[in-house]
Write a structure and sequence with these properties.
heterodimer; A: 261 residues; alpha/beta; four-stranded antiparallel sheet; 10 strands; B: 431 residues; mainly alpha; MetI-like fold; two-stranded antiparallel sheet; 18 helices; 2 strands; globular; binds adenosine-5'-triphosphate; binds magnesium ion
Chain lengths: 261, 431
């Protein structure tokens, strides 16, 4: 245990004025169901954004649109200066720049931990195998499970699997990381080990968008909390303001529900 | 403890007795027999009945097997030797050994060629079947089809060489252009290979005797060799075709999806035997007169399509069993379609599909005997036709069919054992 243990004070990282992601009046439908309505969002490099909101409000759909796991029907999404279009080359490029962690980890069960981490660098980045393995070990050390490198995902605990999933994304050296409820499939005692890893990432200046119900994490790490309801961004603010002075009644209701007991 | 109860209780054991070995009736063979064979009156009765059945079978077959005749040259001599005693006329196997294996028409001084091809087949399959063997051996596997073709069919060595060069040129062109677009690479590669083969045709025509083996036409192939040729070729072709059909059926491109669905549903809805008749007769109508479209090739195409349709459905089941998260994880890492299929989706889907694929492969191998119906002399065709119809061996059914069954059984049982071993090797997901 050294410098990576999260400090008690808030993560205080400089946010640059360089735009990492910009979303302009984006709309999405599932069939006739209007999931996302007129989303406008600009994320600057180095920002840590937490997205909160009731179930079914479109949080997952929003961040999945950013790496084109879901297609949007109207509006414009620009990631790292590249406009998301339906061009496959374009999409693959953006995906290799944007890391994503899923609620259910989605590790590849037929590959060892090390192979999980080296696969994309070798095939997408064309990194030589040796070098990819060094990078992978570096990040596995960072998430504190280098000793598991030769095991298979099925042999690891949930918390360890999620940390491997984070390491796997980091091996692609992404400039932006998306998290979709990374801790909600975990037992309580494993949540903190994953959150520690995420705090560490934030301290290193990673641009992060994180859907989570961990309000402690939001208070400590986020520089902005976004509240979504019924496919709209209802309110966004700094965490202090957001939790102490929610403006919209829907936010107040939501906060009273999740913090109230 | 004994202090307190010594007066109130009649007897208290004060020392621990050493452990005794269990009575003989509870150990070893005796116990096993009691528990498994004579476990209650019904169990005992069943055991006795089974033993009696086994006795009947052995009493009937053992004398026939052990007392068999191996050296006579026809059935009458065999019956004389037996002189009324029970015994099999296995001499039909020794006398017709070569016909059973190679058919009637294959030149007898050339039997070494298919034999060598068979031995090399084992060497070519080894690195495919056993993943821990050095990957370099796969080079030989890649060359094997050309070598085997030359060995079995003969002719000038230029034919397989030109074929190989064509494949090489096609692959080079494909590699060069596939980065730009898959369609361009694919069709460019096919076109380049075609042109090479067309040009190579002139070279072959100019030097027909260059390092030539005696040419054996397809209609002279027969016996178990024909079953092996059809089985090996069709299994190895139908697996990749089946994978492509399964992926095509999942495709988001409607035309590709539609073609695959129609193909699969049509082929699965038709008996194999009708496809073979089509191959035998009807295809000839569609071809320009004078084209000599090899019969074995036609049969291979039909059996391959048939097996591929089934394999495609088996693999589709495997694909459907994968959670959507696997596709999404592969996508989110920036793998393209071909990479995510090859590295993530197919390895897992194929592993799930192994039992089903083996099922199809074993069925296909046995179905190669159906070609006897379109008057090709495979093992079954040989037995039914030339051997049983001859006056020498008319009537030795048991010996011949037992032999044929054993040959197929050995191969199919081997495939099945291999697949179970492979499943254990691949069990890494610890679910
Ligand atoms: N593939 C889909 N097809 C149709 N509807 C969908 C699809 N995916 C999500 N939806 C719907 O879109 C809405 C938003 O879903 P989304 O998963 O984005 O919500 P969420 O805010 O992430 O909720 P949760 O907190 O439960 O994860 C939900 O009503 C959901 O039912
Ligand atoms: Mg969600």
């Amino acid at each position: 245990m050294n410098d990576v243990v999260p400090e008690t004070h808030d993560v205080d990282m400089a946010v640059s004025d360089e735009v990492a992601i910009s979303i302009e009046s984006m709309n999405k439908w599932f069939g006739t169901f209007h999931v996302l309505r007129d989303i406008d969002l600009t994320v600057y490099r180095g920002e840590r954004i937490v997205i909160a909101g009731p179930s079914g409000s479109g949080k997952s759909t929003l961040i999945r649109c950013i790496n084109a796991l879901e297609e949007h029907q109207a509006g414009k999404i620009t990631v790292d200066g590249t406009v998301l279009s339906s061009d496959i080359k374009n999409i693959d490029r953006i995906r290799s720049e944007v890391g994503m962690c899923f609620q259910h980890f989605n590790l590849f069960p037929h590959l060892s931990i090390l192979e999980n981490c080296t696969l994309a660098p070798i095939w997408v980045r064309k990194t030589p195998k040796k070098e990819a393995e060094e990078i992978a070990m570096h990040f596995l050390e960072k998430v504190k499970i280098p000793e598991q490198a030769d095991k298979y995902p099925g042999q690891l605990s949930g918390g360890q699997q999620q940390r491997v999933a984070i390491a796997r994304s980091l091996c692609m050296r992404p400039r932006i990381m998306l998290f979709d409820e990374p801790t909600s499939a975990l037992d309580p005692e494993m949540i903190s080990e994953v959150l520690d890893t995420m705090v560490q990432l934030a301290e290193e200046g990673m641009t992060m968008l994180c859907v989570t119900h961990e309000m402690g994490f939001a208070r400590k790490v986020a520089n902005r909390v976004i509240f979504m309801d019924e496919g709209q961004i209802v309110e966004q603010n700094e965490p202090e303001e957001f939790f102490n002075n929610p403006k919209s009644p829907r936010t107040q209701l939501f906060l009273s529900q999740i913090l109230g007991h | 403890m004994s202090d307190t109860h010594a007066h109130s209780v009649a007897y208290v054991r004060e020392t621990q007795l050493p452990q005794q070995p269990p009575p003989t009736i509870e150990t070893g063979a005796v116990k096993w027999v009691r528990q498994n064979l004579f476990n209650g009156p019904w169990g005992s009765l069943l055991t006795l009945v089974s033993l009696y059945v086994i006795y009947l079978i052995l009493a009937g077959s053992l004398p026939w097997l052990l007392n068999g005749v191996w050296t006579t040259s026809n059935i009458r001599e065999c019956r004389e030797v037996l002189d009324g005693a029970t015994g099999g006329c296995f001499s039909v196997l020794s006398e017709r050994w070569n016909q059973l294996l190679f058919g009637i028409a294959y030149p007898s001084d050339q039997y070494w060629r298919p034999t060598v091809a068979f031995v090399l087949l084992i060497a070519a399959l080894a690195p495919v079947l056993f993943m821990h063997l050095p990957r370099k051996l796969l080079i030989f596997t890649g060359l094997y089809p050309f070598i085997a073709f030359w060995l079995i069919w003969g002719g000038t060595i230029m034919v397989p060489i030109v074929a190989l060069i064509g494949v090489g040129v096609g692959y080079a062109v494909y590699n060069r252009y596939v980065a730009d677009s898959f369609a361009m690479g694919f069709f460019g590669g096919v076109a380049a290979a075609m042109v090479t083969w067309w040009l190579g045709g002139f070279v072959i025509g100019a030097m027909p005797g260059f390092i030539a083996l005696e040419a054996v036409p397809s209609r002279d192939m027969g016996g178990f060799m024909l079953n092996m040729i059809l089985g090996v070729v069709c299994v190895s072709l139908s697996l990749p075709l089946g994978i492509m059909l399964a992926l095509g059926r999942q495709s988001s491109m409607p035309i590709i999806k539609w073609i695959c669905v129609v193909f699969i549903e049509f082929i699965r809805g038709v008996p194999l035997i009708t496809l073979l008749f089509v191959a035998n007769v009807v295809l000839a109508y569609f071809l320009p007169p004078g084209t000599n479209f090899d019969l074995i090739l036609r049969v291979i195409i039909m059996i391959t399509m048939f097996a591929a349709a089934y394999i495609a459905e088996v693999i589709r089941g495997g694909l459907a069993a994968l959670p959507r998260g696997q596709y999404e994880a592969a996508d989110s890492l920036g793998l393209d379609y071909a990479q995510s299929m090859r590295l993530i989706i197919l390895p897992q889907a194929l592993k799930i599909s192994i039992p089903g694929i083996v099922n199809v492969a074993v069925g296909l191998f046995k179905d190669t005997t159906l070609v006897s119906v379109i008057s090709m002399f495979d093992l079954v065709g040989m037995i039914r036709g030339p051997i049983l119809a001859s006056t020498d061996w008319n009537g030795v059914y048991w010996e011949l069919w037992l032999f044929a069954s054993m040959l197929f059984f050995v191969v199919c049982y081997g495939i099945s054992q291999y697949s179970q071993w492979l499943e254990r090797q691949l069990a890494t997901d610890h679910r």
